[in-house]
Protein 1
Amino acid sequence: MSAAIKGPSLTLKAREAISGWLFVSPILTGFMIFFVGPLIAVFYYSTTEWNLLSQQSHFVGMENYVDALTRNDTFWNVLVNSLVFAAGLVPLNMLLALGLALALSRSVRGAVFFRTVFFAPVITSAVAWAIIWTFLLQHESGAVNRALSVIGINGPNWLHEPHWAMASVIFTRVLKTVGLNMILYIAALQSIPRDYTEAARLEGANGWEIFRRITWPLLAPTTLVIMVITVVGSLKVFDHIYLMTGGGPQNATLVLAFYIYEQGFKFFNTGYASALAVILFVLILALTILQTILKAARK
Amino acid sequence: MAKLHLKELRKSYGTVDVIKGIDLTIEDGEFCVFIGPSGCGKSTLLRMIAGLEDITGGTFEIDGSRMNDIAPAKRGVAMVFQSYALYPHLSVYENIAFGLKVRKTSASEIKTRVGEAVTMLQLEKLTERYPRELSGGQRQRVAIGRAIVGQPQTFLFDEPLSNLDAELRVHMRTQISELHQRLKRTMIYVTHDQVEAMTLADKIVLLRDGRIEQVGTPHDLYERPQNLFAAQFIGAPKMNIFKLTDECQNLRENLKLDRNAHYFGIRPDSFEIVQPGEGILSGKVRLNEYLGNACLIHADIEGHDPVILEQPVGTKITTGTTISLNAKADNVHAFAKDGNRIA
């Protein structure tokens, strides 16, 4: 009588599961240490009054939140500034990105060159970009005002007048980031089968109707992703503000991320800065959830 | 009414000529099938008729009016795409109504015409569904519905059944045939499937390398192929072609072939197996394939390419047997040295 063949002690499914966990464990470990850990720490710090210099810390509960939301006028100004920045940047960025993508998605002469031109700022150093634009927007000697003076316009002091400062940082930020959204839109446009537009042409639709009834609805998933990425990016903006205006003039460009930096690393109110960071986190999380809801509703 | 006239029609992409001078007339109400191997230009020709491709040279007329520079939507044509091209974000109803909407047709008219189309195509229960929720056959019917509602004079079909399984293909083929009988409109149909061509067409246009090889009824193409390409393209299995070498001049006499004949062809179903020594050819059976309703016998013929003959089921021939083959002179097609048919 032959001995029965003895199989492995674990089932195939269990062995595959173990392999799977082993494969993801390095990234999972990094994620826990460098993302989840600090996130929990920030939540904890936000409930303390902790001065980084004196190293004194004590638990204050929700006091930092209450202070920011009810007693600190600057916080609300900062929040409004962040929302103004986002409200200015997001539509301008998306409209420009869509327009460029529509123009450059076709295989026409020069399209690749112009795609490169508009994408180049994305890979350019943010510091270099901000410094160049700071020079270009100088009041007396800036190239922008010099160009305007040629056509008889006396340009404002772009970065030092409250209204113009915000407009200037929005505009220069749009030019810096529009290339990425343009590429995303180009990829989406090129994935729309040519048959759709040809069928619509045969049925009598003109260019605008094809865009309105076919292209735009089919771009909706991409538009949603781009919108969330751009909104989140605009709420997190820091380097651009730091380098071009430093939050000024008169706090006109003081946005949330920059305010968190000021509270944490200039005034060393670590606990308070952590509470502000949590508020920014919640704001961004809410927008991400909104994206999920919008996607679900679309289905 | 739509009579289409193509005069010396040409299409080039840069220096590459794709359509090399097509002269063709498609009568009003005719069902015309463009057939040919991949890359022969049949879809390009259809797209030129639709207006989706520019015409490089020649003239395209519908009912005597030059159409070369007329916009696709003003040619009175509707097209069913190979991919169906159903708009994924629109329901079946909205897909069918799309063309009417962009043409600013009144709401009541849209409702009436879409209603008629969905009834005709048995799509009543599917109007609120989206394309992704439909089967291949249902999508095909929606695509046809979208073509019908515009009441075009000419329907263009670009390999509409190629994405369907064999059973559904037969079903949809009959539906398209019935649609043609009902609407009596000019239809142009591109396919590489000769069964579709033979069963649907009033007129078959056989293309190769941007040129017409033969135009005629399915009967003409099968019974009187005008050249070796047509002879071998139409018919499955394809026609057996033999070269008349000096060594087989007796075949010329036995088959009463013209003295200019350089090749002759015999369809697989035209062979008969006769007693040894009584046939014109003899061969050794290499393979016997059972098809259910017939069997295909592959045999090696000395001095010629192997042949395939179709025999009734029950023909008892085993591999390795030597068989003697004969064919009636009426069933033998003779071709000259240049490949053209000798009447």
Protein 2
Amino acid sequence: MTNLFNYIPKDSPVHKLTGATKLAALLLLSFASMTTFDTRFLAGITILTFIMFGVSKIRFREVKALLWFTFVFMVLNNLLIYLFEPEQGVMLYGARHEICRLFGRYTLTQEQLFYHLNVILKYLCMIPLVILFVSTTNPSEFAASLNRIGVNYKICYAVSLALRYIPDIQREYHDISISLQARGVEMTKKEKLFKRLKNIVTILFPLIITSMARIETVSNAMELRSFGKNKKRTWYEARPFLPADIAVIVVSALLLVLSISLNFVNGGRFYNPFV
Amino acid sequence: MNLKNKSLWKVDVKTIVAIGIGAALFFVLGRFVAIPSPVPNTTINIQYGVLAFMAACFGPIAGCLIGLIGHFLIDLSAGWGIWWSWVIASAVFGFLVGLLGNRTRLAWGQFGKKGAINFNIAQVIAHAVAWIVIAPVLDILIYSEPANKVFLQGAVAAVANIITTAIIGTLLCFAWAKLVPDKSSLKKED
């Protein structure tokens, strides 16, 4: 199996945290950075995630492909925002300090630039966090971690089934697609759009049949072993919480509380230096 | 087993497995299968056709969780961060198709003209709600993005997804129904 989630095993304090802790921190911090647009808070979180990157011993060149992709995505999204609404910042901050006029309705204002800074900061605190999570957490720990943070174990089991069967389905899709292409099923631009979609179904159908058959087999096997009889189950990959785990969860929770309370302090979601 | 009385909301072992394998399918198709579309640099999302089919087969809870888990895993592995607004929209889509698309008929191996119309009405409504209402509204709430940008993005996504789901999803249902023996053709002896 190719390394789907870019897990890089290393010996670092971040790797030693349990998956449940990292998942909880990821969720808490992503909600914290979603609720507020306070520039200072977002900048703080960004610095924190970059420090965590240093602690985790993950080198930037190991995640270069991911970061590069993210960078392009970020630039494109900012350009789109500006093209569609060059006055978004002015509307949000209720003030207008013009820097220069470009053309037509496109002017450069301090508020707009500040708004874009905030959007970029939102990416900068979120994306390294996700990358850090996937590169320091073993995917086999996902299901146990989800259960630990309170998700029903049947749903966790579905997640672990998904992770288990992704490589199989990937290989199957590849085999079917290649053998059908050898028989002349065209998938590239040479074919007309509607015909191309119909050709996809030719590939999908064998895949769906085997998947439905697999659902039948796996669910029979699980039923025979009385899956779902008890209220709880244990996990092979589960690890006990250490003091460091509790500290990380507490800090993340406090940051979420801080971000929510900032909404009241600032009288809205924005930190507004203009009015 | 009397399929007719099986509740839409029942979660048995089969539903759990269907969620897992459905999410794996959604992930593989969404992450690795790129089919070029007429618009440059955009690809056709075929995973929603399969999600609609699975939701119609296994009900709203399965549809919702396949969309949620599948899309979450795609975001996690792709590296662009987790876009909760679009992850939730995928979950809502699966839920609505499962709720509105007639479940028992397809599982029974009956899928005719009526089924196709029912399935397509369900998927059009679900796509419209997911991409024109849920995703843009959450984008505005969470990311304060300009309204005209997110609504246009949503509308484009909705139209593209409706077309691909109409073709892929409907063809899958027809083909699947042909494969499953029509259970209503058997009668219980008195």
